[in-house]
Design a protein that fits this description.
Number of helices: 1
Largest sheet: 4 strands, antiparallel
Strand order of the largest sheet: 3-2-1-28
Radius of gyration: 19 Å
Shape: globular
Helix content: under 10%
Distance between the termini: 40 Å
């Protein structure tokens, strides 16, 4: 299991989660990889990427713990996401990146080469989520709008104004539902027609969110908790109170329990703005005091966290290819 965190101080942090008798977070690398704050990270198998306000996506090979190349965009990177079909479950097929000018860029991940860039928002994109089928993606932007992108045709297929700007959009594990975050409010919708199912109130601002299995949605933010919401009932399933001493900036589901029993715990990682990364077995969340399985202190102001439990020893390749210089001409009109 691998974790990668980005920081305000431009450093990227890589860790390997090991489990023998106890869980330990072993450092993989630390790089001053960007020229400004790191905004987003993504991990899939042996591939990891980071993006920041220096308009650059850095690419890392986790098997060799090294930076192997970069991709350049015309403005600050706001979100990153890998996609892999079931036939390539151990290696990503595509990388998706959004930026502060409202563009979505699509890259092939084998090798890393630019395929297409299209305009999806009038202002910067806040968040991106790719459907498990890989056929469409949802984005929310600073223009207070929700957009749907047809990834098969490479064009925006839907665009509507929201009542309030959303900072996060995510499909659930199956793609049947999606959720959006606007400050302390979380709305859950049917993917087929965007029908509102529940609106959840977290009381304090939500800064990160990620789906789990069995309809669970994990959120973290200014309340310093890791909260698990039941999307079927719209209620809190359980919560790790005071998971961190500072606001939670990233949550990653690393391992999900299965029919194999207690030997496969449900492992969730969280990162806070004071630089601490912690590993939790959320089955222990209902106990009076939940202690982390492992933790690491980067001593930096963390801004984002990504991870993967997928094992891959495949070597990464990078071609010297960037988006077209004339993005505006190639982009779809908003």
């Amino acid at each position: 299991m691998s974790l990668v965190a980005g920081s305000y101080e431009r450093f990227i942090w890589g860790y390997r989660l090991k489990h023998r008798q106890n869980f330990t977070l072993s450092p993989l690398f630390t790089f001053p990889s960007h020229q400004s704050t790191i905004k987003a990270v993504a991990v899939f198998g042996s591939a990891a990427v980071s993006g920041g306000y220096d308009d650059t996506i850095k690419i890392y090979d986790l098997t060799s713990s090294s930076e192997i190349g970069f991709l350049h965009q015309s403005s600050a990177i706001t979100s990153l996401s890998f996609f892999a079909p079931p036939s390539l479950s151990s290696f990503p097929r595509n990388l998706f990146a959004t930026d502060a000018e409202g563009f979505l860029s699509i890259y092939d991940a084998d090798p890393f080469v630019h395929l297409k860039t299209l305009k999806v928002h009038k202002k910067g994109v806040n968040s991106l989520s790719v459907h498990p089928s890989g056929q469409l993606a949802l984005t929310v932007g600073h223009d207070e709008c929700l957009a749907m992108v047809n990834l098969v045709r490479g064009r925006r297929s839907f665009y509507c104004r929201l009542s309030k700007e959303s900072s996060i959009v995510q499909f659930n594990e199956t793609g049947e539902k999606f959720f959006m975050v606007a400050d302390e409010k979380i709305s859950i919708h049917e993917s087929e027609d965007a029908k509102l199912i529940f609106e959840l109130d977290n009381r304090k601002r939500v800064l990160c969110a990620t789906p789990g299995s069995n309809g669970i949605l994990f959120t973290g933010g200014e309340d310093r908790n890791v909260t698990a919401w039941d999307a079927a009932s719209g209620k809190v399933a359980y919560s790790i109170e005071d998971a961190h001493a500072a606001r939670v900036k990233g949550i990653v589901v690393l391992s999900k329990s299965s029919d194999s029993g207690e030997e496969d715990p449900y492992i969730v990682a969280s990162a806070s703005s004071d630089g601490v990364i912690r590993i939790w077995d959320v089955r222990m969340a209902n106990k009076e005091k939940t202690n982390p399985l492992a933790e690491a202190n980067t001593k930096s102001r963390l801004t984002c966290l990504a991870g993967s439990s997928i094992k891959s020893v495949r070597r990464l390749r990078v071609e010297n290819s960037n988006p077209d210089e004339n993005q505006e001409a190639a982009a779809m009109e908003s």
